[in-house]
Design a protein that fits this description.
Elements (H helix, E strand, L loop, with lengths): L1 H4 L2 H56 L3 H12 L4 E8 L4 E4 L17 H4 L14 E5 L5 E10 L2 H4 L12 E10 L1 H52 L14 H60 L4 H28 L6 E4 L1 H11 L1 H6 L2 E7 L5 E4 H17 L5 E12 L2 E7 L1
Parallel strand pairs: 7-9
Antiparallel strand pairs: 1-2, 1-5, 3-4, 4-5, 6-8, 9-10
Length: 431
Amino acid sequence: MRRVLQRISSKLILATVLGVVVVIAVFAWIISHSQEQALTSHVKESAVQLSETVKRSAKYDMLVNRRESVHQIIDTIGRQEGIEKVRIFNKEGAIIYSSDKKEVGKLVNKRHEKCYACHAADKPLERLSVPDRTRIFTLPSGERNLGVINPIYNEPSCSSSSCHAHSPKQKILGVLDITMSLTKVDLERKQLQLQMIGFMLCAVGAIGLVLWYFVRRWVGKPLRELQKATGAVARGELSYQIRSQRDDELGEFAHSFDNMTRELAQAQQKINQASKLASVGRLAAGVAHEINNPLTGVLTYSSYLLKRAENNSETKEDLEVIVRETKRCRKIVKGLLDFSRQVPPKKTLVELDTVIRESTKIVDNQLTLNKVEVELALGDVPAIRADFTQLQQVFINLLLNAADAMPRGGKVRLTSAVVEHAGESMIESRV
């Protein structure tokens, strides 16, 4: 499990899902809060309308002082589902009508929650705005209730009534108070919240699955292929190729990896070839060393015989040929020995044309066997400071590589000249 969580694809999915969860949660809270406010506002408006309906329904009965009819109206409305209490308070705060008969005649504290909207200030309010008429409070049982107070104003019809006329100076006769239960509203609100949470979980799950599929396909799979390829290269399988068909960044990385393995394979081949050449060089050095001693003996005896054959011209000519060719063989052997030695460079003034000619002589027999013809186009170049042996090694390698590149024979052209580059004179040699 820990290894799975450490993968890049897993981290990417987790980070994206967490971001989606935060965004969806914020939007869900905003939507839920807006719906709750809209639902509460709708309930408040309905409660205010109900309060107005009750007040208008009981208006005539209160004008003619038919208390039983008012009690019946309040009692009937108070029995409806969701209505907790319907009460009418007079100016002094006494309950004169109530759906609960036990409350009739009781006096309510003006600092009570149902009176606070009007009596919050030192001077009671004579006019109350519609939004301030509603209040939401929580009972000790945890149930929320909505209260609506509707002032009963002293209209001209009330102050002029013959049965119980009120003074025209009295602005408010009493207050109609309706208390409604919000249990049903809270239940709907919880259902909306549960639906929102369910939607959020489904959305997060769906987005997570989609992300898992595409991240696994577009990120996880290419990374596993690259991991497999690097493991193969680490084991020495330089011919391993990913051959990705993708055109994104990971596809470019895979193409670069394939190019790298091809270059590594070519470099490995060159290293192997250089190792073979080094082995051949060591072998040639050993052979040259073994040949050098017999050649020294042949040269010594042939030189001695040449001195004794002063009077025999025919024998003398033959011995001169033997001495000359023996010296030539010794020179070739010395060149092979110098070529095979790994010594620090000794820079001296050397003629580049001389280096080229000597290098050609050393490999002349091998080039002839490979049917490779050497053409020299050497210019008049000045002497340079360089290591004669190392320059010779360079040209020998170039000639041998050229011969290997022409298995059916051909022509190798070596040139040297003085050229101008960036305002400076330089010696250039081409093969």
